[in-house]
Amino acid sequence: MSIPQSKVTAQGQISVPVEVRKKLGIGPGSVLEWHEQDGSVLVRRAGRFNSSDVHQAVFPKGTPNNKTVPDIKAALRKAMRKKHARG
Question: How open is the CA angle 72-78-79, to the nearest 5 degrees?
Answer without folding.
Answer: 90
